[in-house]
Amino acid sequence: MKHYKEIVVQEVSVISCDKCGEQAKQGDYSFSEFISVHHSCGYESIHGDGNKLNIDLCQKCFATICGESLIITEPENWDNFFQQKDTVSDDFMSERENIIEKKGAASGILSNIKADKCDDDESRQSSINKEN
Ligand SMILES: [Zn+2]
Predict the structure, then answer these.
(1) pTM of the model
(2) Ion ligand 1 — residues with CB < 5 Å
(3) Residue 71: C-alpha distances to residues 37, 76, 78, 98 (Å)
(4) How far is the CA of 20 from the centre of ligand 1 (A)?
């Protein structure tokens, strides 16, 4: 038995841009477009060995800072993405139906099997041999 204790979990409810101050609440579309960088500095870092860097930027400031260096790649094909989801969903359901059919067949087979009560391997083996 597991015994649980209550713990306090914190989540980000509002995020603000460290450059321009723009804010977004969780659930806003712009909330998920914020870019956060968290980095632990290593040996020879100009920011200091062992120091940590943190910055949260809105998408506009991030794009401005990165300028021409930002590499943006479009999704290969959104249509394929959604078609795959539908296909997966259909396969999932047919797979479930197959499993349910097999379980039904297995329970029918098992209901016809009568096993001898046996306490040792020798009598268990002889009951298997009787079946063949
Ligand atoms: Zn900003």
Answers:
(1) 0.54
(2) 17, 19-20, 22, 58, 61
(3) 17, 15, 19, 46
(4) 4
